[in-house]
Structure formats: structure tokens, C-alpha cells
Design goal:
The structure is a homodimer. The first copy, chain A, is α+β, with helices and mostly antiparallel strands and about 425 residues long. The first copy, chain A, has 10 helices and 26 strands.
Chain lengths: ~425, ~425
């Protein structure tokens, strides 16, 4: 059988070489249109393949999959069918879209019913998020923060190289790309002020992250080893962990970030499967000291994914302000999931686990304004001549990501959100 | 109309004066039995009233409520109908159970179909928890912890009297009373050890808490004022926030508690409504300094609820080890919910908001082993002659709570869980 990742594959749909969605990608998402209620789709070039329509026309017949799982407002029920089924559906979609297959391409009515232009659909939240954890797994980010706020000589706390540090976040306020966000109100206290005040955050920031979505549950008490984790990870999205730095500084001791984060987190709508990312596995950074055995892993579990952040002022142009890469992660996803479940905490289908800010080694690769402007001391100049220390009202923040090898580009599309003034 | 809280009300069901569930209480829960699949019930004396059966027999006809909302495995769909409907159903149930009403009591077939002994049912999780926050709102608890771990002279951190400090917790591992828990494995590091190790927690603790459940959603960007909060709170349960102190110490800097909490939290199965607790409102502690206006409230929002923790060794007797009261809370629930939503974070139906450990002013009212034994330096002696610094394998921890006034006792039943050894 031809593998769905084979660089030699071509589709009967014309796809630009710059597209994030060649036949080797086939990410899953939830869309609606003027004529279609929310359902599961797969991105292919500039189109969406409507899996609900594909299933209705018996094109998944040999898979023995309940066709109604594609007619749902979230991917959860499809994902819950397990990795063999995700893979079988992806392989079958690959087959249907291949240039040597005419099951859809040879039938103009089917083409019309199953394919819809991306410009004609609205993308919705891909999953109903049951639980959300945010990790803190980039050593460059943790070092930058520790240097700024604590001690440059002891930037990393003693636990950092032993534990994939993380905290529970708010699931309800994770929203899909394209949804405007509001600058949050909150309590802050300037270091020299006698008392705190309440009002719009003045230090609104983004954090460039990648999140993985789990597709298999465990029971309370079960643990997942890093080597088993691949079977639990359905796919990945880009994740903007919006942060109000002034609120965070005042609230976070001793129980961690709370309202500084929970006002919104934005994600990209297409879930790129671990299968699609297989060709882009790379070795991660050397871990020294060696992690404890429950965090031990075999094989490569980092991924070479180019990441970029762009800032677009109201009516202005996109300014590229950061280029980073997911391969920089010190702790990989398999270790994160193993750690999360090491106390017996049960994993659910649709959980979201974000990486933490992905900063690279040099200044242009820092994944937040906090680091890029070094706490606002080194503002960024934009193409329209204006400066930014943090994010202004009406600014749009865009994150994009893609992996590329052997001429094949597997991308995430983007996560994009405009900041509206506080209410 | 007679109010459902009226102390003069009596039911045609015989109810012991020591029962937590007189006709003035009427808490909601989800139960199943040998012959009934999961559904909504109301506790009355030693019985459960099956609301699914009540609705099927058209006894809710005048309420215009979809009868199928009572035939669900969680209360969420019923709760989502809003406060006027919770109240109307509670009032109607009160009417049906009153000694001057024979709609059920006068029909032996109906009695048999609608009433079932509590000893014949299994209680399930009352709600599907979408989001869970744990606050830290007892000044005595925060002071005890600050005294032990930081500085007795500056036990409270500077933000504590300005913010109802809280953090996001793990929703998936909240489980119902009666479910055994496993001692968690985790990473810990003794102060004098060169490196951390992984294994069963040695300092397993409970935290005595009360949690409220929200029954009305907000949109992203909306804020709830403390004076509006009563309309969002459906009811309360007892909450045991299991904690692994040795894991917590090592992991919690800088992002807060994580795996030290997420292995399990146990709740009592009956949700006592805010309406049932109305007669037990009391003034809370004086808040000085005065909170910022967004946390300002009118009326009394503390509740006089007696709380008790009991420890029962394997095959042994219950030992009362703590008596506290929910009235001690420095920050009330209305302020907690206002704070949670003050940044625009959206509230969902079925969210759970726990109080944080409820310690009172004296040593017998401390709500955790950490405080009761002062970090293990003053062990508790049990009736069988054994000692406890923290919780042992096969110990059962039981929490009970009730309010009492004018001879009427409105109780929560209990939350009870046995600790099994680590896997």
C-alpha cells in the first residue's frame, strides 16, 4: 500500500506548492457553511472535503465506521474511535483524493457535494475541550523569564530540568482563530503603588505555543509511558496563550497564573495529525541530567515545525516579529503526557496540552512580547513607524506554522485574532 | 404560597430529626438502581424521589418542563433551564411531599414508582464538570500555610486581602463519594537529597472544602457582579481536595499546584441548592482593607454550615479530627464568581468552584492534616491507639456538613473515600 505521507503522491485537485494542505497533510477540522451545518472536514489545497457527505455516499463503506460521527459539531466522537480508525480514515481520504482515483473526481455531482471552497466555510472549534494543561517546556523561554524576574545566574528553578512543569488552565475560554478577543480587565499593582487598582490590562501579550489533542482516554490510576504516548495523541494545533503580564505579576503567587490567562486562548482550526507529521521527527535537545525512568523515551519525539508570529496594526500590514521552531522544546509531548498521567490523573478524549511559549536560542526567535522587547525595554519597530512594547488595541496577532522536507510542506494554516478594547 | 423553607412544613414521609434531608432541603442528585438507569433524583429522608418517574406521570405538567431533562446521567441539562425552573421544580417537589398533598401519597402504584430507598441506589457524579477552580479563601488556612512555609510575621502574601486567590484545577479527576482513591505516585525531593525520586507520595492529605456549581452561562467578555452571582449559583457540595504535600512542595514553583492535586478530588453526591441554604445566611468576616468596587457586595453571603472531618482506619472506628464551619470564609462565593469572571472569562453550566481549605480560628477546626499536625510535628492520636501525621493506606476520610436553625437541619450527607496503596 502507498503510504499517505509519500512525497510522490499527487491529488487530482490542483494544489499550490505554497499551500499548507497538500495530499500528504489531510488535517481534520469542523466547519459550517451557508448550506451545511457543523460537521467534520479535511483540508485539501484551497478546499474542504466534507466527510459527512463522503460517508453518506458510502465511500467509507469498507471502514465499518458509523457515518454519523462525521455529522457532529466537534471531532470528539470521531477521535474517540481510536488511532486505527483515524489512520484508516486518513488513508482512505488520501486514496479518494489521489490523482489515480476517480470515485469522487469522476462524478461531478459527488464533487459538488463533497468539496467546498475554504473561502466559503466558517471554521469552528475542532474539539470540545474537556481539560486543558499548559506546560512550560522551552528552556530558552524559562531561562529568559527567570533572568528577567529572578536571577540571571540561577535563571532556571531547581525543579525545571527534572519535571515538565505545567499547570491546569481554563478550558471554557479556548476559542478558534478568527474570534476577536477583548483586552481583559483585572487587578494590578505597580511596584511603587500603595494599593492595587482594577482596569484594562496595560501589558497584553501573546505566547507562541503548539498544543496536542488527546484521542484516547485512560482510567483514573492508569499511567502512560512516553513510549505509549504516540497512541494517545490525535494531532496538533497552533496555540496563542494570551497573557496579561501586569495581572499575572500581581496574582500568581503562590498558586500560579489564573485570570492573567483565562480570558482567552486562541487555536488554529485544523488539527494536523501525528501521522502527517511523521516525516518531520527530529532529535530533541540533550537532557542533562537524565530524566527519571518514568520520563525516559526511545526514538525521536521532537518535530521540525517552523513557527512565525506576525503583528498587524489596524488597517496596516503584517509585520513578522518572531521566527521560532517547535524542535527547540526541551521536554517533548510524550514526556509531558507521561508526566501528566504519572499520578494516575485520567486523560480524556479532546483534552488539550499546550507546550508553553516556544522560544529559540536567538532574540528573533523569542515567542512572546515579554521576551522580544525584554519587558518593554527594547520596543519593536513596525513597518508603519509605530512601536510596540506589548499588544495595542485593534492589533491582530497571527501565528503560522509548517514543516517542510523533500519538497513537501505540511502546514497548520494560522491562528489569528484581533484585540478589541476592554469593555 | 407556603415557602419551601418554612420550618412548619412536614412531609407524609417519616423523617428522623437527625436526617440531613427534611422537606426543607430537597437536594438534587443523579442515581441509578438495579431497575433504573441514571436519572435525576431528590433526597427526602431515607428515600430518593425519582424525578424522571414524577415527570412521566405528568406531575410536573404545570411547570412546562421538558420531562426528558430528568432522564439524563448528569444534572447539567436540568440546571441549564435556569433559576426560575430550579425553583419551580423544587417548590413543586415540596408540594408533592407535603403532608397535606396526596397526589403521590394517595396512590400506592405511584409511590412505588417514584420513591426508592437510598440504601437501594448508587449515587453518581451529579454534574459533568466542564471547568474547575480551586480558591484559597480561608484566612486561617492561608495564614497557617504562610506561617509554616514562609514567615510567621508576614504569613499572608501582599495580594491575599485584595484578591480571592485561586487556580484552575483538573476537572476529569473529580469523582463522587464512595469511589476509592489510589495513593499517587510522583516526583519528590527531600531538602537534603541530591536529586529527586519517583514513587508513592508519603504525605497524602485531605482538604476540607465546599464547592459551588454554576447553573447559568456567560459569554466571553461578560462580567458577573457579586450582587448578580446568586442567580448563577445552583447549589453546593462537600469537596475533598486530596493533596500530596511532598509532590506539591517540589512541583509548585513557579506555576502552582499540578499533579499534587489532579490525581483525585472527591465530592458529596447531593447538590444542596442555594434556596435551601437561604435561612442559614450570616455575615462574613470584616474585610479590611475594603475590597475594590468590582468585589463589593450587599447582604449576607456567608453560610453557617457545620463541617466535620472523620478518619476511619481499616476495620476501625470513625475518629472526628476536625470541626470547622463554612461561615469562616473570608472571601464569599459571590466575590469568588465575580473575580473569576472579572477578566471576561466565560462561565459554563456545571462548572465547579471550590472554596479552598476551610480552617477555623482554633486548632481543632483546621481543615487539613498539614495544619492539624502542624506539618507532622504534632501527630493525631486515634481511638485505636495509632497515630497519624498524614493519611495512611486503607484509611477512609469522611466529611460531613449540615446547617441547623429553628429545629430544621439542612445537610449535605457525606463525602467518603478510602485510600488504596499506590500501584
Amino acid at each position: 500500500m502507498i503510504k499517505a505521507n509519500d512525497p510522490a503522491l499527487h491529488s487530482w485537485i490542483e494544489i499550490s506548492p505554497e499551500s499548507d494542505f497538500p495530499i500528504q497533510n489531510l488535517p481534520f477540522g469542523i466547519f459550517e457553511s451557508a448550506t451545511k451545518d457543523p460537521r467534520v472536514g479535511v483540508a485539501i489545497g484551497d478546499y474542504v472535503l466534507d466527510l459527512c457527505a463522503v460517508a453518506q455516499h458510502n465511500l467509507f463503506e469498507l471502514l465499518d465506521v458509523d457515518p454519523t460521527v462525521f455529522h457532529r459539531p466537534y471531532l470528539n466522537d470521531f477521535i474517540a474511535l481510536g488511532k486505527p480508525m483515524w489512520r484508516a480514515v486518513r488513508n482512505r481520504v488520501s486514496e479518494l483524493l489521489r490523482n489515480d482515483n476517480d470515485e469522487i473526481s469522476g462524478n461531478s455531482r459527488l464533487m459538488q457535494e463533497c468539496l467546498i471552497k475554504q473561502s466559503d466555510v466558517r471554521m469552528l472549534m475542532p474539539v470540545k475541550v474537556g481539560n486543558y494543561t499548559d506546560f512550560y517546556s522551552s528552556i530558552e523561554h524559562a531561562t529568559n523569564v527567570g533572568t528577567m524576574f529572578r536571577d540571571p545566574k540561577n535563571a532556571l528553578l531547581p525543579n525545571w530540568k527534572h519535571i515538565p512543569i505545567g499547570y491546569h488552565g481554563r478550558a471554557s475560554s479556548i476559542i478558534v482563530s478568527g474570534t476577536d478577543i477583548r483586552r481583559p480587565n483585572g487587578q494590578t499593582k505597580a511596584p511603587d503603588a500603595a494599593a492595587p487598582t482594577f482596569g484594562p490590562s496595560r501589558l497584553l501579550d501573546f505566547e507562541l505555543e503548539v498544543a496536542f489533542i488527546t484521542g484516547r482516554e485512560t482510567r483514573l490510576g492508569d499511567m502512560i509511558s512516553p513510549d505509549e504516548a504516540d497512541d494517545y495523541i490525535f494531532g496538533l494545533v497552533l496555540f496563542n496563550d494570551w497573557s496579561a503580564r501586569d495581572m499575572q505579576t500581581w496574582e500568581y503567587v503562590p498558586l500560579g497564573p489564573f485570570l492573567a490567562k483565562s480570558f482567552a486562548s486562541s487555536i488554529s482550526p485544523w488539527v494536523v495529525t501525528l501521522d502527517a507529521l511523521e516525516p518531520f521527527r527530529v532529535k530533541g535537545p540533550v537532557q542533562d541530567p537524565k530524566p527519571l525512568p518514568y520520563l525516559d523515551f526511545h526514538g525521536d519525539h521532537n518535530y521540525d515545525i517552523n513557527l512565525e508570529v506576525l503583528l498587524q496594526p489596524e488597517d496596516g500590514q503584517e509585520n513578522s516579529i518572531c521566527r521560532s521552531n517547535f524542535k527547540h522544546m526541551y521536554w517533548n509531548m510524550n514526556q509531558q503526557l507521561a508526566h501528566q498521567s504519572s499520578n494516575g490523573c485520567n486523560i480524556q478524549v479532546g483534552d488539550m496540552y499546550a507546550s508553553g511559549t516556544i522560544s529559540g536560542p536567538d532574540k528573533t526567535s523569542y515567542g512572546s512580547m515579554l521576551e522580544l522587547t525584554w519587558r518593554g525595554t527594547q520596543p519593536i519597530e513596525l513597518s508603519d513607524g509605530s512601536e510596540r512594547k506589548f499588544i495595542n488595541d485593534y492589533d491582530t496577532v497571527i501565528m503560522r506554522g509548517f514543516a517542510e522536507r523533500n519538497g513537501i510542506r505540511v502546514g497548520f494554516g494560522e491562528v489569528k485574532a484581533k484585540v478589541l478594547p476592554a469593555l
